[in-house]
């Protein structure tokens, strides 16, 4: 363990070959990258390829097939045994390939979720991914960051770090940059070091990286951090159970067949063969693969729409979301703040959006602008302030700096007159921020008796209560009722038009207080003025709100902003019904009182992150599936508690991203709605697969069950059934999983999460369409059999195989006719149909396959008849959809 903590900060930087405020040169970075490698921990190995392969062979359904193969072998039918085993192996390889690829897709997602860090190289601050850090890099740390490597602090501003990963202590500890004595100090006692894997809970700091990757303390204990979790989803678990139930059901069927056949006096060989065929017919072999692939494809599609899935079950839960709770700033609005109004005690100035020339600075505004410039951590990229996109910092603060620049005020210059001594950083609980400065210009504003001045800016409702005096053109007056009324009116007028209002205040200090704490400093303030800024709503958010409403999802706005501002913006977006609940009112309600209001209130204002938890709880108690957005450290518990925690990709802290199920790469509300739509599509497609696969299987079962009633011999061999299942579940089904959204996807209510998978027509179709197809195909076979044509079994086999092609096409939509959605809207399925057709012809016309599958070549006429009859299921489905469409239309017309 190196002892960086004992050495003086400047010395540490020197030893690491770095220069403060310059950092490393690019060549040096490259050299160190080559020497130390990238800054990442060796991964905890996921499932190995062997494990994935083993799981393919040990699924219950596959075990039934293996038993079937063994039984065929015992009965002396080696050809069947080998063929069944070959198909099992082929199926397993297919499953392996899909699962492996899905795994790779998730690994790729994981790479996208890596945290970034602000680093100073060659004198420039830039944002890089944390993997690229090298020892000696200078970095900035602030509340919400995951510490990206082991570092020695060079500067700490109230920096607190939660180190429970090492110390087990969940309370955060304060850090500073002073050397600490003692060579073998425990990590927890090294107050000037921060370690990879810990979390900055508050404050800010500057540090130099001492160790990276596996050389860090975290690396040493080889505790790997997985950022994207790959766990099975509730639906996957339910489908697993379904697979097991079907295996048991197939055993039941086998028993019935055995008894019936035995009573009719069949030979034991025929009986067992039938039983095996049936068992094979019932099982939807492709189910697990289809679900995995649908989820993987789904998360890729979500990524294209800027939603990064971090936890797989989220893909599915998204389809069931009933309430989307969203922050306002940046998600519903653009987070492009512009100062439009400055209001000091005796003056009100409307600022033009883009003044072409500097506005003369009147003395009355000087203190206000100085305050917002100094109590500010943003950095403008250039002096002319036009390029806000490349500026650093909080958009609110950037806007304030830009406004000050319009008056010709420069931050660097003011900082020389008033160097910053301490800071109480902004947090969304206090809703304000304070900085303390030494005054080197006592002539200014008559500050001769006060060597220090504290500037505070923050939310109106909070700060106005802390102000007792008011600054009126160089004079300090008591903030009496008249002043209060005047200020309240000014604020009210602004907030009612959606303007975000900040109060700016100061406190004159004769000496520095012993402890710099909010409770000490942020009181008895002198009101300087208010600043009004606007943040335009995102145009796409309004559309997304409408989409939500049509989709039976309620959008709810939760903001730290003032109720009036919030209400105005909510109205603009179409969210509001006039009711607004504030954080304060929320605190006074018991959980059950809140439950009774939570369904009707769509706007919450002045809410702190803790209160988000209570809102989620009340909504969940009312049976809602809640998605909640958040960006700060304090939002993490709410993100965990929500059914779908959504973190902001741009403004969000690492901690929020870690806690979230999904990250919005563009911080946009519309992206949540897009992800919900994708979630619904995935759910739909899995159900479509289930319906398609089980309807087809049901038809095979009916053929096998009913044939003896017509005194016919076995129409299908186990191998033939298995072949059809392989074609159908392997090729056609996969193509179903990429089916695009239906036109009503966002016009119907969400799925209940524990809704029966066989609901909404799935079970009904499996029963009636399956039976219809089975009976029709059997009758076709009967016609050929009764006229003693040798090809009768082949007719049944081929027709059944062909039927899967048109069935898949018919089941592409639950609502629209194939002729409406068009053949071209899912091209992979056309390929799958063509391939199925060719492969099926191959087993009938290629001699060695013919002998393996025991088929007869069919005449062209028979082939055409088979193709025509095979579409019966397709027409049945189309007819059913037509009836439903008409019925819906009539109902709407009433
Ligand atoms: P939302 O909760 O909708 O994302 P918000 O920015 O209003 O947006 P918070 O970030 O919790 O929510 O801010 C709460 C209030 O704190 C704001 O309304 C504003 O008055 C004040 N505030 C925001 N940023 C700063 C800042 N940098 N310094 C001081 N006060 C701030």
UniProtKB/TrEMBL annotation:
Its EC number is 3.6.3.8. Residues 3-77 form the Cation-transporting P-type ATPase N-terminal domain. This is ATPase, P-type (Transporting), HAD superfamily, subfamily IC. The chain crosses the membrane at residues 57-75, 81-97, 246-264, 270-297, 689-711, 717-738, 766-785, 829-848. Its main location: membrane. It comes from Fischerella thermalis JSC-11. Keywords: ATP-binding, Cell membrane, Hydrolase, Membrane, Metal-binding, Nucleotide-binding, Translocase, Transmembrane, Transmembrane helix. It is found in: Cell membrane. GO terms for biological process: export from cell; proton transmembrane transport. GO terms for molecular function: ATP binding; ATP hydrolysis activity; ATPase-coupled monoatomic cation transmembrane transporter activity; metal ion binding; metal ion transmembrane transporter activity; P-type ion transporter activity. Belongs to the cation transport ATPase (P-type) (TC 3.A.3) family. Type IIA subfamily. SMART domains: Cation_ATPase_N (SM00831). It is a multi-pass membrane protein. One of its GO terms (cellular component) is plasma membrane. It is an enzyme of class 3 (hydrolase). Pfam families: Cation_ATPase, Cation_ATPase_C, Cation_ATPase_N, E1-E2_ATPase.
């Amino acid at each position: 363990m190196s002892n960086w903590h004992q050495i003086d900060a400047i010395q540490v930087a020197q030893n690491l070959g770095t220069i403060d405020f310059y950092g490393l040169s690019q060549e040096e970075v490259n050299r160190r990258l080559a020497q130390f490698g990238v800054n990442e921990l060796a991964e905890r190995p996921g499932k190995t390829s062997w494990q994935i392969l083993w799981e393919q062979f040990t699924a219950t359904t596959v075990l039934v097939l293996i038993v079937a193969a063994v039984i065929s072998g015992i009965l002396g039918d080696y050809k069947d045994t080998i063929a069944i085993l070959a198909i099992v192996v082929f199926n397993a390889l297919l499953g392996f390939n899909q699962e492996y690829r899905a795994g790779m897709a998730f690994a790729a997602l994981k790479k996208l979720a890596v945290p970034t860090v602000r680093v100073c190289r060659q004198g420039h601050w830039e944002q890089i991914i944390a993997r690229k850090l090298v020892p000696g890099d200078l970095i900035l740390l602030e509340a919400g960051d995951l510490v990206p490597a082991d570092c020695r602090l060079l500067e700490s501003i109230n920096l607190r770090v939660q180190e429970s990963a090492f110390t087990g202590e969940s309370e955060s500890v304060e850090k500073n940059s002073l050397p600490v004595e003692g060579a073998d100090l425990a990590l927890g006692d090294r107050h000037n070091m921060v370690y990879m894997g810990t979390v900055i809970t508050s404050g800010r700091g500057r540090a130099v990286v001492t160790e990276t990757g596996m050389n860090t303390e975290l690396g040493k204990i080889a505790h790997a951090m997985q950022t994207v979790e790959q766990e099975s989803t509730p639906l996957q678990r339910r489908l697993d159970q379904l697979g097991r139930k079907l295996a048991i059901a197939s055993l039941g069927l086998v028993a019935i067949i055995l008894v019936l056949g035995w009573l009719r006096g069949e030979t034991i060989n025929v009986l067992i063969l039938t039983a095996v065929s049936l068992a094979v017919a019932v099982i939807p072999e492709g189910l697990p693969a289809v679900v995995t692939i649908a989820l993987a494809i789904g998360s890729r599609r979500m990524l294209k729409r800027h939603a990064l899935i971090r936890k797989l079950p989220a893909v599915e839960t998204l389809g069931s979301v009933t309430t989307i709770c969203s922050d306002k700033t940046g998600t519903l609005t653009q987070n492009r703040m512009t100062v439009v109004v400055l209001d000091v005690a005796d003056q009100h100035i409307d600022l033009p959006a883009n003044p072409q020339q500097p506005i003369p600075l009147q003395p009355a505004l000087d203190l206000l602008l100085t305050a917002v410039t100094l109590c500010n951590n943003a950095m403008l990229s250039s002096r002319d302030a036009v390029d806000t996109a490349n500026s650093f910092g909080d958009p609110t603060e950037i806007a304030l700096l830009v406004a000050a620049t319009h008056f010709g005020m420069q931050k660097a210059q003011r900082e020389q007159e008033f160097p910053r001594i301490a800071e109480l950083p902004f947090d969304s609980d206090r809703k304000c921020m304070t900085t303390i400065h030494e005054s080197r210009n006592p002539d200014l504003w008559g500050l001769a008796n006060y060597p220090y001045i504290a500037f505070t800016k923050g939310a109106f409702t909070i700060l106005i209560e802390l102000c007792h005096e008011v600054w009126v053109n160089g004079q300090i007056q008591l903030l009496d009722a008249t002043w209060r009324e005047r200020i309240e009116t000014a604020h009210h007028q602004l907030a009612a038009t959606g303007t975000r209002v900040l109060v700016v205040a100061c406190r004159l200090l004769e000496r520095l207080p012993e402890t710099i704490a909010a409770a000490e400093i942020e009181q008895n303030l002198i009101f300087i003025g208010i600043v009004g800024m606007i943040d335009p709503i995102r145009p796409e958010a309004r559309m997304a709100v409408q989409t939500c409403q049509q989709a039976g999802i309620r959008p709810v706005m939760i903001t730290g902003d003032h109720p009036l501002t919030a209400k105005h913006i909510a109205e603009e977006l179409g969210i509001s019904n006039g009711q607004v609940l504030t954080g304060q009112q929320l605190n006074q309600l018991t959980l059950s009182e809140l439950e009774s209001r939570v369904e009707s209130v769509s706007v919450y204002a002045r809410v702190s992150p803790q209160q988000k938890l209570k809102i989620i709880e009340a909504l969940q108690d009312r049976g809602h599936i809640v998605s909640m957005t958040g960006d700060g450290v304090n939002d993490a518990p709410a993100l965990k508690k929500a059914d779908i925690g959504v973190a902001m990709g741009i403004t969000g802290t690492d901690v929020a991203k870690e806690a979230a199920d999904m990250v919005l790469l563009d911080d946009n509300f519309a992206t949540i709605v897009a992800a919900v739509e994708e979630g619904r599509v995935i759910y739909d497609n899995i159900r479509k697969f289930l319906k398609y696969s089980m309807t087809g299987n049901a038809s095979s079962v009916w053929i096998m069950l009913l044939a003896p009633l017509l005194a016919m011999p076995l129409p299908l061999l186990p191998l033939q059934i298995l072949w059809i299942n392989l074609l159908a579940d392997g090729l056609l089904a996969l193509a179903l999983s990429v089916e695009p959204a239906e036109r009503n996807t966002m016009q119907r209510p969400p799925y209940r999460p524990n809704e029966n998978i066989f609901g909404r027509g799935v079970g009904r179709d499996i029963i009636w369409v399956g039976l219809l197809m089975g009976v029709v195909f059997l009758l076709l076979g009967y016609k050929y059999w009764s006229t003693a044509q040798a090809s009768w079994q082949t007719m049944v086999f081929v027709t059944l195989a062909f039927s899967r092609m048109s069935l898949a096409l018919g089941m592409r939509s639950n609502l629209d006719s194939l002729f409406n959605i068009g053949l071209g809207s899912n091209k992979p399925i056309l390929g799958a149909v063509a391939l199925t057709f060719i492969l099926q012809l191959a087993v009938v016309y290629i001699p060695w396959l013919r002998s393996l599958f025991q088929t007869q070549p069919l005449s062209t006429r028979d082939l055409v008849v088979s193709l025509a009859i095979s579409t019966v299921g397709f027409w049945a489905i189309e007819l059913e959809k037509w009836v439903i469409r008409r019925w819906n239309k009539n109902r709407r017309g009433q």
